[in-house]
Write a structure and sequence with these properties.
By secondary structure, this protein is mainly alpha-helical. Among the domains are: 126 residues; 73 residues, no CATH class. It contains 14 helices and 2 strands. Helix 7 crosses helix 9 and helix 12 packs across helix 14. The two termini are 42 Å apart.
C-alpha cells in the first residue's frame, strides 16, 4: 500500500481500534462469564436474604461492577505489556504479603492475617500474588531457551515463586498456598519440553511433606484429616463437608425450590454464602439444575 503522507481522521482511527478490539474478544467466553456471574448473584441472594448476611449481596454486586471495569481496562492493555511487568508485579505482591502479615486485619480473617483494609475496602494480597505468579510463569517460559530447562535451572526459577507461597502459608492460609503451588506445577508440566525436571521437583516436594506436616498447626492437620475422612469428626472439622453433602443429596432430582433449601435457610450449612454456594444451588435446583450449571460452566 502506497504511503500518501496523509494521516487518517481521528474518528477512523477510533473505529479501527474498536474493530480490532471486537475481533480479539472471545465473545462466547464473555457471555458465559456474564451468565455465571448472574447465576452467582441469583444464588447469593437466596443464600443471604432474610439473614444477618443480607448485606453481602450488595457488597458482591459492588465488587462485580468494579471488577467489570478492571476487566475492560485489562482487556484494552496489550498482554505482552503485563508479561514484561511480571517480576515487578511479583515483587509488589511479596511486599503486600509482608505488609499484611505485619499490619493485617486478623479479625476479618478469623485469626489469620489475610486482609488489608484500604479506603474502607478489604484487599486480599494472596489473590494479587496468584495473578503475579501466573504472569511470572508466562515470562519465565517466554524468555527461557528450551535447552536451558534442566532440573537445577528450574529449581532456581522456582525459588522466587516459593517466597509468596511461603508467605501465604504462614498467614496461615493453607488452601491458597496449596492452590498457588498447584498452579506452578500445572503450568510447568504443560509448558516444559520434557516432563522429567518437573517430575524431579514434584518428587522433592512429596519427600518434604513429612517435614511440612510437623510445621503445621494442629487445626490445619485436623482439617486435612477431616477432608480425607469427614466421618472421623462429624460434629467438628468434618461438619462442613458432611452438611454440604447432605445439602446436595437432599435436593434429589428437581430440588426443593428457590429459597426453600432447609440446609441453607436454617444455617445447618456453614459459610453457605461464600464456601458452599454450589451446595445451596444443588439443594434448591436438584440434580438436573446442578448438571445444567456444570455444563454451562464448561461450554
Amino acid at each position: 500500500m502506497k504511503d500518501t503522507g496523509l494521516a487518517l481522521p481521528r474518528a477512523t482511527v477510533g473505529v479501527s481500534r474498536w474493530r480490532r478490539f471486537r475481533a480479539a474478544v472471545d465473545w462466547p467466553l464473555i457471555l458465559t462469564m456474564l451468565a455465571l456471574c448472574a447465576i452467582g448473584l441469583f444464588n447469593l441472594y437466596s443464600a443471604t436474604r432474610g439473614t444477618r448476611h443480607s448485606a453481602k449481596f450488595d457488597t458482591q454486586l459492588k465488587w462485580m461492577v468494579i471488577a467489570s471495569i478492571l476487566f475492560i481496562v485489562a482487556t484494552a492493555v496489550d498482554y505482552r505489556a503485563l508479561v514484561r511487568l511480571a517480576w515487578i508485579g511479583l515483587g509488589t505482591a511479596i511486599f503486600l504479603l509482608i505488609v499484611v502479615r505485619l499490619l493485617g486485619d486478623a479479625a476479618h480473617g478469623k485469626g489469620s492475617y489475610r486482609w488489608l483494609n484500604i479506603a474502607g475496602m478489604g484487599i486480599q494480597p494472596s489473590e494479587v500474588a496468584k495473578i503475579a505468579v501466573i504472569l511470572v510463569l508466562a515470562r519465565m517460559f517466554q524468555d527461557g531457551e528450551l535447552s536451558g530447562y534442566t532440573t537445577e535451572a528450574l529449581l532456581i526459577r522456582l525459588v522466587a515463586l516459593a517466597i509468596p507461597v511461603g508467605l501465604i502459608a504462614i498467614q496461615p492460609d493453607l488452601g491458597t498456598a496449596t492452590l498457588t503451588t498447584l498452579i506452578c506445577l500445572t503450568v510447568g508440566f504443560l509448558a516444559m519440553p520434557s516432563v522429567w525436571p518437573m517430575i524431579h521437583v514434584t518428587l522433592a516436594g512429596l519427600l518434604a511433606i513429612p517435614i511440612l506436616w510437623e510445621t503445621m498447626h494442629d487445626y490445619q492437620k485436623n482439617r486435612i484429616l477431616a477432608f480425607i475422612d469427614p466421618a472421623s469428626d462429624p460434629t467438628g472439622n468434618g461438619w462442613h463437608t458432611r452438611q454440604s453433602i447432605l445439602a446436595v443429596g437432599s435436593g434429589k432430582i428437581l430440588g426443593k425450590g428457590y429459597g426453600e433449601g432447609t440446609q441453607n435457610q436454617f444455617d445447618f450449612l456453614p459459610e453457605h454464602w461464600t464456601d458452599f454456594p454450589y451446595s445451596v444451588w444443588a439443594e434448591e435446583w436438584g440434580f438436573i439444575g446442578s448438571v445444567l450449571l456444570v455444563s454451562s460452566s464448561r461450554s
